[in-house]
Amino acid sequence: MLALLLSVTIASAQKIIIQGTVTGDTKGKNKVYISDLNAYNDTASIESGKFTLEIPYKGPQALFMYMQYEPGYRPFKVVFDEPGTINARMDAQTYAVKFSGLETPMIFNDFNNKEIALYKAVNEELKKKYGTAYPDLDHPQYEGLMKDRERLTNEKTQALLKEQVTKFPGSYATTYSLAEKTAAYPLSLKQALYNKLSSAGKANEKGKELYAMIQGTKSSAIGNTVADFTLNDPQGKPIALSKFKGRYVLVDFWASWCAPCRSSFPRLKVVYQAFHKKGLEILSISIDMDSKNWLKAVGEESMPWEQVLDTKQIAKSKFAVPAIPNIFLISPDGKLLFKELGSNPSGGTEMERKLEEIFKEKLPK
Q: Residue 332: CB partners within 8 Å, gap ≥ 6?
């Protein structure tokens, strides 16, 4: 009997329970959702201003929670690294959220709220200088305003990250923020922030991911030789980068849920058809977490080149991929020649111009 009670207690402990309180009028839209963006993990009804969400704890994770009433779609992240209870206070009018209970969600929630305040502060500074924070494309100072927005946002975000890592150097919430926010930062800044982490921070899942990103930034410098790696194709067959030695290779990072990635494939097929016989290969690497979603998308897209799933953090440790789609051009002798973030379904990208230069042929429009 004691063993049975103990097993039940342990099983119930391996859950994330969110006990919420909602203030304000929800206009009869009384659902709250929590999702990993692939599917709803749980749904709850708000009754007398309260709700409870319950999901199994499977390890450190970030999920997205939002209310049915919320005008538009502005989910906020719930970041956690242990089972237990999170208390959430939500306001239906301002959509403000405050967590208590487990430490990691509280620390990340505080960081997130400071980040929201940061964006508001940037907007106020832009309004004072330009009269608006969101100019039309024909605004006479559009370019200057957008450069100021990027500069101010970077300055304030970097200051916030430095404050976070100083206050909570061992927290999963801190390493999660660093791993998510610093992908496109210069190597020196990434390294400086990583160095401020405690041993516990460096040892957790996101701390290791940040380290891999730093190593990837070092290894993905233009002119460097790309170290060989092996990943499996849809049939489970290992595909090594070295398989393509002697030919140019486009390494294309994507995911099934990435709409811009998938809209780029028709144009990528044009590129492949034009240059494959002249020495071009393409290796598409999916960063999908769910292999079923990847396999389904591979079947739907019918790409005539090699497909593999990134199960070894190659995107971060070898290429420091900050976002997708992200494409890299490797020379026949294995050196990184060019890289490009983003895509244009209509073509005409810098990467395409580089390939036209190499193969001395214009791509069709």
A: 245, 246, 247, 248, 279
**Strand duo 248-254 + 326-330: pairing:** antiparallel
Rounded-to-integer distance, Cα 69 and Cα 341, Å: 35
- The two beta strands, 61-67 and 76-80, are antiparallel
Chunk the chain into consecutive blocks of 10 residues (it has 365) and report each block's average pLDDT, rounded to whole numbers: 45 80 88 79 90 92 84 77 94 86 96 93 95 90 93 96 97 95 89 97 94 90 94 97 96 96 96 96 96 96 97 92 94 96 91 96 90
- Give the total residue count for the chain: 365
| E strand spans, 228-361 | 230-232, 238-240, 248-254, 280-286, 306-309, 326-330, 336-341
Rounded distance between C-alpha atoms, residue 21 and residue 124, angstroms = 31
User: Residues 267, 255, 74, 174: is their CA dihedral positive or negative?
Assistant: negative
What DSSP designation does 334 have? S
Q: Are 168 and 103 within 8 A, CB to CB?
A: no
232 Cβ contact list (under 8 Å, min separation 6): 238, 239, 308, 309, 311
Q: Residue 71's pLDDT is what?
A: 55
Q: Of all helices (H) and strands (E), which one includes residue 10?
A: helix 2-13
Two tokens, residue 294: 């990847």
3-state class (DSSP) for residue 325: coil
SS3 of 321, please? coil
Task: For residue 198, give the amino acid letter.
Answer: S
Amino acid of residue 154:
N
C-alpha distances in Å from residue 339, one per residue of 104, 221, 282, 323, 335: 36, 9, 14, 12, 12
Cα 341 from Cα 55, distance rounded (Å): 35
- Provide the pLDDT for residue 40: 67
Residue in 328, 331, 334 with CA at minimum distance from that of residue 314: 328
Distance CA 109, CA 79 (A): 8
pLDDT at 10: 46
Report d(CA 43, CA 353) in Å as an integer: 49
Q: What is the DSSP letter of 243?
A: G
Which pLDDT score is estimated for 66? Answer: 84
Contacts of 362 (CB under 8 A, 6+ apart): 356
DSSP classification of residue 277: G
Per-residue model confidence (pLDDT) at position 183: 83
What span, in angstroms and rounded, lies between the C-alpha atoms of 270 and 18?
49
Note whether 197 and 170 are within 8 A (CB).
Answer: yes
